[in-house]
Amino acid sequence: MGAKKFGGLPVRDGVSPSCVSLPGGDWPTFIDFLVQRFPDISRDVWLQRMAAGEVFDEFGEAVTQQRAYRGHMRLYYYRTLPPETRIPFDEELLFQDEHLVVVDKPHFLPVTPSGHYLQETLLVRLKNRLGLDGLSPIHRIDRETAGIVLFSVQPQERPAYQDLFRQRTVDKRYEAIAPWRADITFPHVSRSRIVEGQPFFRQAEVDGPPNSETLIKLLETRGALARYALSPVTGKKHQLRVHMYALGLPIVNDRVYPPLDPTPDDDYRFPLQLLAQAISFDDPFTGQRRQFSSQRRLDWP
């Protein structure tokens, strides 16, 4: 089986080409649209990409400088970034078969390319390491969070695994180190409505019907701190961090909750003390009960 292609472009160095959907419009050429759509990318850069054969349409036809604009289709191109500094932590491969790849992710490593992370992401590292161009994440955890992440080996099987999360038939268990409060009775169930806050990467609780739920159990205490087991029923962005902060129990080394302006940069000495510790589910293809646990441990300050 040859390498998977997107338009006329194969996966390169573990990275799939980026895609942009073209609306109807009266741009004279494709490059006129691209310069307007991506103002931070100069016309010269697009010209260089086209001259290098790095921009194609979804039918595998090269996009050139003179080619007239046509809407209602997709273009594929290679995204480039300045050289990335390696994130100095390694993922651990826990399991691999014809359906699944299961990885124990370190803190600070993004799951997928975004922003200024491309090669230094879990997905791209794994594609290069395993030679699986069709590998795709079934779910995601925050860049700052460590622990279990599942990947689908066969692209056509990914929706069936994702359905398990939508149907809430996946059991997920996290651990966190945070302050201890004697006035909160555990186990405790947090329910709230979480929406995108300001700035865009921070979530906020607002009035309204709950759309998030987390079961919180106390595992042990050490002085003013405690280790908690967190079981999310729903999967809202930053849900565990938001719920713990709302209880007055911000997770140790969280740079976003409580909010600080400006948000501090990464400091590898102080990883967020949140771990995706275990996950279990019935595999829709093998019928087996799948259970995976992280080998990592949180650090008491």
Description:
With 301 residues, this protein is α+β, with helices and mostly antiparallel strands. The protein is 14% helix and 30% strand. The protein is built from five helices and 16 strands. The protein has helices at residues 30-37, 43-51, 122-130, 158-166, 239-246; strands spanning 5-6, 9-10, 18-21, 55-57, 74-77, 92-96, 100-105, 136-137, 146-152, 171-179, 188-196, 203-206, 212-222, 225-232, 274-282, 289-293. The strands form three sheets. Strands 6, 7, 8, 9, 10, 11, 12, 13, 14, 15 and 16 form an eleven-stranded mixed sheet that branches. It has a three-stranded antiparallel sheet with strand order 3-5-4, with no helix packed on it. Strand 11 (188-196) and strand 12 form a beta hairpin.
Q: State the order of secondary-structure elements, H for helix, E for strand.
A: EEEHHEEEEHEEHEEEEEHEE
Distance between the termini: 50 Å
Q: Runs with pLDDT <50, length 5+? A: none
**Structural class category:** alpha+beta
DSSP helical segment count: 5
Q: What are the key terms here?
A:
301 residues; eleven-stranded mixed beta sheet; three-stranded antiparallel beta sheet
Summarize the helices and strands and which ones pair or pack.
Elements: E1 5-6, E2 9-10, E3 18-21, H1 30-37, H2 43-51, E4 55-57, E5 74-77, E6 92-96, E7 100-105, H3 122-130, E8 136-137, E9 146-152, H4 158-166, E10 171-179, E11 188-196, E12 203-206, E13 212-222, E14 225-232, H5 239-246, E15 274-282, E16 289-293
Parallel strand pairs: 9-15
Antiparallel strand pairs: 1-2, 3-5, 4-5, 6-7, 7-9, 8-9, 10-14, 10-15, 11-12, 11-13, 13-14, 15-16
